[in-house]
Design brief:
This protein is α+β, with helices and mostly antiparallel strands. It folds into 2 domains: 4-29 and 99-221, PH-domain like, CATH 2.30.29.30; 36-94. Strands 5, 6, 7, 8 and 9 form a 5-stranded antiparallel β-sheet that branches. Strands 1-2-3-4 form a 4-stranded antiparallel β-sheet. It has helices at residues 31-37, 41-60, 66-97, 153-156, 178-193; strands spanning 23-27, 99-103, 106-111, 117-122, 126-129, 132-133, 139-145, 171-175, 220-221. 35% of the residues lie in helices and 19% in strands.
Length: 223
Amino acid sequence: MQHEHEFEPVRGLPEALPAGERMLWQGSPDWRTLARRAFHVRKLLVYFAALVLLRVAVVASGPATAVGVLVSALWMVLLGATAIGLMGLLAWLSARATVYTVTDKRVVMRIGIVLTLTFNIPFKRIAAAGLHLDANGTGDLPLTLSGSDRIAWLNLWPHARAWRLARPEPMLRCVPQAAAVARLLAQAWSRSTGVALSGPVIGEVPVADRGLSSASQPAWAVR
């Protein structure tokens, strides 16, 4: 079975870089973090654990024997394990098919498990970016597009910032060593556009200020 990206001239890119353009970084999501944050495997685990306990309580309150209670609970455990396993597999496949590339002129996102899509986002089309760091050093880097540029949220998912449906924000998701990548991205954007950063360079802000989910301002923006 062959995939579209097997014919890429350069991994993660639809064509070779033009003369004068340099690749600065390339990476993919950490699939374990993606499974937890985008596919919510921990929440599923808690959900099915609660269902198992509820099932045991209901069956045990009736005339069922201990063996009957065990069998009833086992079916629920198998159902939960299957659901969690499928979500984990989807996370692994999604991470394996995804390549994020940062050059000195743009961000390129190659995403898609079955249907491969490649999004080229020039720095001049990026108005702002943010950073949300996870405890393990991975992080999400959402990109706010300038002007009327739009990418459909469904085309981006799970590489899109949550709850930004009207104005979707492409996001480099669950990137390892995210602080360093964010700092590199911010500096490359500033050099390419000739616009000074209006806030601290991403990756150098205090830990307490890194949370994107509760912050109203991006980590850097056009002044």
